[in-house]
Dienelactone hydrolase
Amino acid sequence: MNGPEADLTGWNCEPFTGGGYTHDVYRKGAGPGVVLIPEIPGIHPGVLALGNHLVDNGFTVAIPSLFGKPGKPVSPGYMAQSLTRACVAREFAAFATNKARPVSMFLRALARDLNASTPGSGVGVIGQCFTGGFALAAAVDDIVLAPVLSQPSVPLPMTPAQRRDPGLSESELTIVADRCTDEGLCALGLRFSEDKMAPGQRFETLKRRLGDAFEVIEIDSSPGNEHGFGRMAHSVLTEEVREVDGQPAYEARKRMVEFLTERLVRQ
């Protein structure tokens, strides 16, 4: 059994240029804006289902196609191909620590463009897996009011320093931490407890720097866990969701929607 899936039906595609890069962006919905950054291998059916879920909950969703072929289902070969290409792209700096990644400039520009055409005073940004930390880097721009980091995996956690690294540069993290203190910015982080690709040390670093402004949801995936998550459980908001009340990934997705609603929807 897989998580929810959808196709490209109803999504409008236009190229967008920002920060020196151009990518196609798929857009759908009405209401406050949310930039949904896809996970490896790209805008797969699970990412599209998540986008549709956000649209159904009253948001305008923009999904930039940073890698892969939009709509293509996940397969091991496709995963490996997309990961290999992403790892060598200067845009993502997959292995660098204390790094301001060029893709962050593109995402900030996209967030500003989305905000200009949607209601409210700011937008949310959701990053997943390879792109998880990019959401927090986007929050250097004060137009980003609700960053969500789902299983952030960059820099790829090969060394202790990479596992501790927050996924953005020290100067960017300082700006975000200042926004948390001065403006009430909050971030939401999601991971499975045994996920080696999104190491706990990374969340410890972020919790130390952001304090109570960093809300963490860590789902038990240890051996024998109550809900049967495997040791390779990784994609909190897509692959591991089962739409049954009480299922931890489903409840985490609910909390994410609540978080976006609290931060973006005027009461």
